[in-house]
From TrEMBL:
Residues 1-19 form the signal peptide. Keywords: Signal. It comes from Thiosulfativibrio zosterae. The lineage of its organism: Bacteria, Pseudomonadati, Pseudomonadota, Gammaproteobacteria, Thiotrichales. Residues 36-181 form the Tll0287-like domain. This is Cytochrome c.
């Protein structure tokens, strides 16, 4: 009886999934989901009142999406930047080094869509799988992250983020990165 139970279980859930080792592939999926959840919110926010309105949307939705994804996946889910805007976007030293490497990779001609990095690190005596993926600056991003942000948009940003550093970007530059981690 016990044996049959185990066979049924391994048929339903392959051993690789049962072990639940975090992987870059799983992290890549999380990044994709993050984009798929945030992009429509941003688009709708822009449509319903332009970038000034959409800042409020990003301010409330982006952290909410990160929180929900973390809860459903068991990963720590964040976005960071060398020039942060959001409250949790300030990188630690590992993240800073990885993003500096990403910028060098972009400069050497590597396609930004493929720029990612993962590593197993030791954190407080615990093995942790860490993953980062570059987030490129696209055209629509320039309204709130570009070199020529309109005055009312600047004001709205300053209201929520008095310490904002996340402007001055050009299209194609790396705006920041997804940063995910999970205990092994
Ligand atoms: C309507 C203005 C607006 C637009 C357009 C916009 N952003 Fe942002 N962005 C924000 C705000 C506001 C935050 C801070 C969100 C928070 O509080 O977590 C942010 C945060 C980020 C972060 C997290 C790191 C950080 O510095 O806080 C990344 C990465 C990012 N944006 C990338 C992009 C990209 C890529 C695009 C284009 C596809 C884009 N943004 C378009 C307003 C905008």
């Amino acid at each position: 009886m016990k044996k049959i139970g185990l066979i049924a279980l391994t048929t339903l859930f392959p051993l690789s999934l049962m072990a639940q080792e975090p992987s870059a592939q799983e992290a890549r999926g999380l990044a994709k989901t993050f984009v798929e959840k945030l992009q429509p919110e941003l688009k709708a926010g822009m449509k319903n009142g332009g970038p000034v309105n959409a800042i409020g949307v990003c301010h409330s939705k982006a952290p909410q999406i990160a929180h929900d994804l973390a809860k459903s996946s068991g990963w720590n889910v964040n976005r960071v930047s060398l020039k942060p805007r959001g409250a949790s976007a300030t990188p630690d030293s590992w993240e800073t080094a990885v993003m500096e490497k990403f910028n060098a990779q972009l400069a050497s001609g590597i396609d930004v869509k493929t720029i990612e990095f993962s590593e197993i690190v030791s954190h407080n005596g615990q093995q942790e799988f860490r993953y980062m993926k570059a987030i490129p600056t696209g055209e629509v991003c320039l309204k709130c992250h570009g070199t020529d942000v309109a005055a009312p948009v600047k004001e709205a940003i300053a209201k929520f983020y008095p310490q904002d550093q996340a402007t001055g970007y050009q299209m194609g530059q790396i705006r920041g990165a997804f940063s995910f981690s999970k205990a092994m």
